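Final report, closing paragraph on structural work. Over the funding period we assembled a curated collection of sequence-structure pairs, and we close with a single example.
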Amino acid sequence: MVDAISDLYAVIPAGGVGSRLWPLSRADAPKFLHDLTGSGSSLLRDTWDRLEPLTGHDRIAVVTGRAHRAAVEAELPGIPDRNVFLESEPRDSGAAIGLAAAILSRRDPDVIIGSFHADHVIRVLPVFHWAVQQAVAVAREGYICTIGITPTEPAVGFGYIQKGEMLAVEGAPEAALVDRFVEKPDLATAKEYVASRSFFWNAGMFISRADVLLGEIAENDPELYAGLMDLAEVWDDRERRGPVVDRVWPTLPKIAIDYVVAEPAAAKGRLAVVPGHFDWDDVGDFASLAKLNSGGRKNDLAILGENARILSDAASGIVVSHTKRVISLIGVKDIVVVDTEDALLVTTSEHAQRVKHVVDALKLTGRGDVL
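Its predicted structure, as stored:
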């Protein structure tokens, strides 16, 4: 058991379509609403369940699109209505997390917020909880803290965080300053990073005093900061909120939290990192989904779908079936098959990242009915 952290408020950004998981993930049913691990719960519900021991059920906020409100509240029946922050349209993570920080700071000026994506898979929860506890201790000292994942391979699909000198913070023995953020590298560079043992994967988890995070936004993007302050001022007033959101939200700059907060803070020595030694996956494509559901066994065939009817002989990879069709696979390796009522995807694990290009092509050809 872990004791709740009295000054921590968890924020779950639940946005994005997850286009590399099409046709499973759609605009009206993004990946955080799916059970992708066979746990019986959606990724969003799993995220809530691992955060609740740290905060209690009334100190978790979800930032999501208006179109997903009903689905989010169905997945999280215990969430207070005042803790569902609705975006009228996607404006990227800088606006989403900044909005939560601005609202919660007005409610509690001393609050520490922790941002945790709705669509990640994390196992070994006591280790995760220990990392968050350390990050909160660092945040109390005025730093913005991220949780870096120890790389298990030279992945090119993640950004990297370079660890600098160690910090002396009570309650956070593993905390260190961040020297720099690095965008997704090529394979040769990723191999160098992993071999150096001074780099972490960037999992997009940030813990900070709300006022410190907002101060960083104000310094780096005054336009975004001004808009967030206008929204926060009226957010808890139902009569005033609607017109202000409709007017202000579409004008907010679209920028990721990495660019508006993390990278500038690292350059100024204000960003820290705590290593996350827990099992983590962002389920970024079907290759990672196959690995996640096969326990990493390369020659296995992972099968998802409550009523999947699969026949296989010397096949490996993953099959996701949401139909009653019988799917037979013979002698194929690292195959990806996703069968839905209105779309069928067939590819391989090697080309799983290219699924996004299919989504882009469907948009260009006007076939949005399957997106």
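The longest strand covers residues 199-209. The chain is about 35% helix and 25% strand. We thank the funder for supporting this effort.
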